[in-house]
């Protein structure tokens, strides 16, 4: 199935591993040129793409730094001329079950990255997509943006990502630019598979989903690839749950 992505250019944040890395690879497999960013230089992601015959480059980026975000987008434009796809995926989850709900310092940091960081990246992307009147953006939210979960910073910031998505979608719907969000359930990542995560914790995360398992990063990546493709041409402002049925319980 031709998704109409060959030759397009994408900008990805949080691309050093997990969902961001899987999405960068999935887009490259469709013939997309990919600029991969992360707080740490995503050299491994770029290596995997290039070894498979794709085109990519990587750079370190703090999404909370407005000047750095603008410079990263400008660098992509200088290299490849325009921007077709934005995947704003960088985020943090710093709260645990035992974290006091009113831990303001943790709340502030999570919101700064997850909410403000997404807004800054969208603003920079839209400045370049707007004049061309074409483009597609996907923001990483979470099932925590659709239902109530513990963690004041994480839950509220992911609700905010959906709000930002809908706001931009309405603003740019008449300009040929689509903006959607992806809402993963619990996903198998290096963090959830680490020795520090107990078997009991993994079993608990799995049973939260009617499918009785966690999702994979590639399953989320496939959702993102669909949303930025021509196959989703009449979809905008939508928070797509890829969650094994979590929010349908």
Structure description:
The protein has 249 residues and is an alpha/beta fold. Helix content is 43%, strand content 16%. The protein has seven helices and nine strands. A seven-stranded parallel sheet has the order 3-2-1-4-5-6-9, sandwiched between helices. A two-stranded parallel sheet has the order 7-8. α2 links the parallel β2 (33-38) and β3. α1 packs across α7 and α3 packs parallel to α4 (104-132). The longest helix is centred in the middle third of the chain and has 29 residues, at 104-132. The protein is globular. It starts with 8 loop residues before the first strand and ends in a 7-residue tail after the last strand. The mean pLDDT is 94.
In percent terms, what proportion of residues is strand?
15-25%
**Largest sheet properties:** 7 strands, parallel
Rg calculated over all Cα atoms: 17 Å
SSE topology string: EHEHEHEHEHEEHEHE
Global shape: globular
Helix content: 40-55%
Number of helices: 7
Compact overview of the structure:
The chain has 249 residues and is an alpha/beta fold.
Topology record:
Elements: E1 9-12, H1 18-29, E2 33-38, H2 43-51, E3 56-60, H3 66-80, E4 85-88, H4 104-132, E5 135-140, H5 152-172, E6 177-184, E7 187-188, H6 199-207, E8 215-216, H7 217-228, E9 239-242
Parallel strand pairs: 1-2, 1-4, 2-3, 4-5, 5-6, 6-9, 7-8
Helix pairs in contact: 1-7, 3-4, 4-5
Features:
249 residues, alpha/beta, 7-stranded parallel β-sheet, two-stranded parallel sheet
């Amino acid at each position: 199935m031709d998704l109409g992505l060959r030759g397009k250019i994408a900008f990805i944040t949080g691309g050093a591993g997990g969902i961001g890395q899987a999405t960068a690879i999935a887009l490259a497999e469709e013939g997309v040129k990919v600029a991969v960013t992360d707080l740490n230089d995503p050299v491994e992601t770029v290596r995997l793409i290039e070894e498979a015959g794709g085109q990519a480059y990587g750079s370190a980026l703090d999404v909370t730094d407005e000047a750095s975000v603008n410079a990263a987008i400008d660098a992509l434009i200088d290299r490849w001329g325009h921007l077709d796809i934005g995947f704003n995926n960088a985020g943090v989850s710093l709260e645990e079950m035992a974290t006091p709900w009113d831990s303001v310092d943790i709340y502030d940091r999570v919101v700064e990255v997850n909410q403000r960081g997404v807004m800054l990246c969208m603003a920079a992307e839209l400045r370049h997509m707007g004049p061309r009147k074409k483009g597609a953006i996907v923001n990483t939210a979470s099932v925590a943006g659709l239902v109530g979960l513990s963690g004041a910073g994480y839950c509220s910031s992911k609700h905010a990502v959906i709000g930002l998505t809908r706001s931009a979608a309405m603003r740019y719907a008449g300009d040929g630019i689509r903006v959607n969000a992806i809402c993963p359930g619990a996903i198998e990542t290096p963090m959830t598979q680490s020795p520090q995560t107990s078997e009991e914790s993994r079993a608990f995360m799995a049973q939260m989903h009617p499918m009785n398992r966690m999702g994979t990063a590639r399953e989320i990546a496939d959702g993102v690839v669909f949303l930025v493709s021509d196959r989703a041409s009449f979809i905008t402002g939508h928070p797509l749950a890829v969650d094994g049925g979590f929010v349908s319980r």
